[in-house]
Request: fold
Amino acid sequence: MSETPAATSPKRKRVNVRRPEVMEMVQAEVARHYQSSVVEHIKDLGGRLTVGNTTVRLAQQFGFCYGVERAIDLAYASRRVFPDNRIFLIGEIIHNQEVNRQLVDMGIVSLPWQEMNEDYDKLGEDDVVIVPAFGAPTEFMEKIEARECIIVDTTCGDVMKVWRRVRGYAKDGATSIIHGKSGHEETRATASRAQGEDGLGHYLVMLTLADTDFVCDYIAKGGNRQEFLTRFAGAHSPGFDPDRDLARIGVANQTTMLKSETEEIQRRLRRALDSRDGSAANFQVFDTICGATQERQDALFDLLDEPMDMLLVVGGYNSSNTTHLVEIGNEHLPTFFIHNAACLHSLEEIVHFDLHEKREITGDYSGVLMSGKPIVVGVTAGASCPNNLIEDTILKVFELRGVPAEQVKPARAELPNT
Reply:
């Protein structure tokens, strides 16, 4: 196939910054910023460290996944490959304040991701634009391509698998039912692909089982069209008509959702179509949960097999996969969602994000931390949380129990790369 002339359609200026000489320096820099000898030491001990009457148990899978590591490496490499260019990032590279702060310190400027503004019109051919791990909606990609920017695409491979699936649904004439948060960067990017190559495909984003039951009732029994559209305002494709666009459906999901919930949504939708049609011939499904997300959820369930006094989940408050770890923990024991060790103010106060109130709150939990009896504290972290923040949290727990860092850190000879 001949290439379209640049005069009529700008050539995509996507670059590969993973050059051996660059990546060696980048990986050393990333390791300095985010590695942890304490975390590696506890992993070597099987995920359990006891000092005195305090035990910390660490989940077997936690923290950075491959997709996150890759995105960070590419962002760091962009500055080394283009030391003098202006570099921009669509939104955040991942949902972690510490990592995004490091990029700001490197002179990487964040562009708005919820909607495009005049900043996009000022981009030029010498400007580098980084696409985050979540991906970006098609209209954003078309814009930066039209501006002939240099594009460094860090989109996670698992996210792109979902895109291929929803494009396939659109090609088959099926509406994509996306289990996710309609305002999340990844879901917005996926929804744009669900409209297909011709832009005529449809999607509906559902978050809860209550949303699912509402849709299932509509599929099986019909209902009030306007009530449907009002309930899902902002969560469906333009021109969506539930009386027409629920005839054939295919299920996908934001890759960081709770797998058990996604599977239950699939079952209920299948039953609804079977009830209406007498078969599930108009139902398609494909497992699009990220493997790393599932590994971290499974590892937390394993961690919960043994009694613990409390669980600390470390990560960004806007991180979907971290939120689901908190939800799992809340079902079993006192669980606190913190973004770093500074949230552990003292033995009396823990600042944490409350999922129901959707805000940070402070509570008195001295009954757990101040008691003289032995305690066990579980620690896990979302896929966007670096090991250095996990280390800080572990050290703070021991400090609050009167154990100095020197008794927690491994001996110098045990440290890697020394």
